[in-house]
Design a protein that fits this description.
about 0% strand; about 120 residues
Length: about 120
């Protein structure tokens, strides 16, 4: 587990907050589009504008999620495998919530250390 000595702690709390917000927003939108949008489109033959706008919004918000995720990964000096799993969590319904909990549990103890 990283310690305060080998992690860039300056700005870490802000990076964690940005990650938490983007993980929540991306996760909620992806869940809504998957649970409501896809059945609407394919079971009820729907073609509403909100369906297209929802997927476009998820795409743009996912880019922001990737940026804030990589910012946190670089600050924590995590390896490429962890970075890849965290970033890909935004593409699987409900996994961004799991990634957010996992990341928060690893970053919070470092923020509570005396610096």
């Amino acid at each position: 587990m990283p310690t305060a000595g080998n992690v860039r702690t300056k700005g870490l709390s802000g990076a964690l907050l940005r990650f938490q917000v983007m993980a929540f927003i991306t996760g909620v939108l992806l869940a809504v589009m998957t649970v409501i949008g896809l059945p609407y489109k394919y079971l009820f033959d729907g073609s509403a504008a909100w369906y297209s706008i929802g997927w476009i919004a998820h795409g743009w918000l996912y880019i922001a999620y990737v940026v804030v995720s990589l910012d946190l990964v670089f600050r924590m000096k995590w390896h490429l495998g962890k970075a890849l799993l965290i970033v890909l969590a935004g593409t699987i319904p409900f996994m961004s919530f799991v990634a957010e909990r996992w990341v928060t549990r690893r970053v919070k103890p470092i923020l509570d250390l005396p610096q």
